[in-house]
Specification:
By secondary structure, the chain is α+β, with helices and mostly antiparallel strands. The chain folds into 2 domains: about 100 residues, no CATH class; about 220 residues, Penicillin V Acylase, Chain A (4-Layer Sandwich), CATH 3.60.60. The chain is built from 11 helices and 18 strands. The protein has an 11-stranded mixed beta sheet with strand order 1-2-3-4-7-8-9-10-11-12-13. Strands 5, 6, 14, 15, 16, 17 and 18 form a 7-stranded antiparallel beta sheet that branches. Strand 8 and strand 9 form a beta hairpin. Helix 1 packs parallel to helix 4, helix 3 crosses helix 5 and helix 4 crosses helix 5. The longest helix has 16 residues. The chain is globular, with a radius of gyration of 20 Å. This is Acyl-coenzyme A:6-aminopenicillanic acid acyl-transferase.
């Protein structure tokens, strides 16, 4: 993750009441999604509960979807924001510094994302600047820590690796345990824009920048820290926020490939994608992009694999996680389904896997803050947050209804 120099302070949380309908929790499942229970509505948006996790389904213009988000998640957004700025206020930042940085954050953001922020500010009780600060919550929380040396891994299998040949994609979002408190506020957000764009689902703490996306065409995109220092020579849009554009606009792997190749990142990244027809990893520097795949399997951790980069040997933490994912997959070759993929993903680093389980590294503890398993063909998703259970969610009915 790129860590900007930012300044913050405690801000008072206030706002007007939003138009939120909060009936008693219904025991009636949502149409076609037996794991979802209806909770509340606001305008054209709805909130459900899937096990431990809230699910919000938003419909309309981007501003309207932002309004629904702010209303449906208002308690969590304010609680999460209060926690974030409470930890930062002790560092002596002023209110004006915080909100000024919030204004700077959105300078190069796509208009659609900015419209979502505007809508959220109208119903959440937070200002647009506050929403922008919360969007970078994990990054802000890590400001007091050394630069993040490890972050995330990817594994996708298909063909003769899976029980039925279907693509199964997975990712771990790994960070310093300083970010662990945010696992309390995870939400699956489904955007259903009425402008003809694809429906998009994201998995992240409420209001925080998502790094795991799925869309209604069965495409998946996520990222891994590249383990290199490679800053663009000029200002560029933040690459991870461009994932919104990729998912709203692209409907197949060929178009997504063109979008990724044609977008110069602000820093070096590893980009993971999957769809019903395959899976790929992109090793992106600010001036070059290489794509790789495999014979039924592709994986990534926090180093570039392609030898043409001529980079030094990768750090052990990345090399071992990458190799562990390949080893565990080969042991299960021909029988991997979603359940087995979750078992592979749940093996801790100390036991020969790739999951950080409050693992001691560089003098700090690291964890797989969230995990995802996704089947593009059926749009079936399994999610969890660290120390919490896996939950299945059928995305197709949420995308289509």
């Amino acid at each position: 993750m790129k860590v900007p120099v930012l300044f913050f302070v405690l801000c008072l949380l206030a706002g007007t009441a939003s138009a939120l309908s909060l009936p008693e929790l219904s025991s009636t499942p949502y149409m076609g999604t037996p794991d979802l229970v209806y909770v509340a509505s606001s305008e054209s948006g709805q909130r459900f509960q899937a096990g431990d996790y809230p699910v919000i389904v938003l419909t309309g213009s981007y501003r309207e979807m932002g309004r629904q988000y702010g209303a449906l998640m208002r308690p969590e957004l304010n609680e999460e924001y209060a926690y974030l700025i409470g930890t930062l206020s002790a560092r002596g930042y002023t209110q004006e510094m915080a909100r000024a940085e919030g204004r700077n954050i959105t300078a190069f953001y796509p208009q659609r994302v900015r419209e979502i922020f505007t809508g959220m500010s109208e119903t959440s009780g937070l200002t647009e600047e506050d929403i922008a600060v919360l969007y970078y919550g994990a990054i802000f929380q890590l400001m007091a820590k050394p630069p993040v040396p490890v972050s995330c891994s990817y594994l996708a299998v298909w063909g003769n690796y899976t029980a039925d040949g279907s693509v199964i994609a997975s990712r771990n979002w790994d960070l310093d345990d300083a970010v662990m408190p945010f696992t309390k506020w995870y939400v699956l957000t489904v955007y259903r824009p009425t402008d003809g764009s694809n429906a998009v689902a994201t998995w992240s703490p409420a209001g925080m920048r998502p790094e795991t996306f799925m869309n209604s065409r069965g495409l998946f995109i996520a990222d891994d820290n590249a383990g290199i220092i490679d800053d663009a020579p000029e200002p560029r849009p933040e690459f991870i926020t461009e994932f919104y554009r990729f998912m709203f606009d692209y409907s197949d792997l060929k178009a997504l490939d063109a979008g990724i190749r044609g977008t110069g990142p602000d820093v070096g990244w590893i980009v993971d994608i999957a769809g019903p027809d395959g899976a790929y990893v992109y090793e992106k520097m600010t001036n070059r992009t290489l794509q790789r795949t495999g014979d039924g399997i592709v994986a990534a951790a926090n180093h570039f694999i392609d030898p043409s980069w001529s980079l030094p040997a990768p750090p052990e933490h990345s090399f071992s996680r990458y190799n562990n994912l390949l080893l565990l997959s080969n042991e299960a070759k021909g029988s991997i389904d979603a359940a087995k993929m979750m078992r592979i993903r749940d093996v801790c680093l100390e036991n020969g896997g790739a999951k950080f389980c409050h693992s001691l590294l560089f003098g700090s503890k690291y964890s797989s803050n969230h995990q995802v398993v996704f089947i593009p063909k059926t749009r079936t998703l399994w999610v969890n947050a660290m120390d919490r259970d896996w939950q299945r969610i059928e995305l197709s009915p949420l995308f289509d209804n």
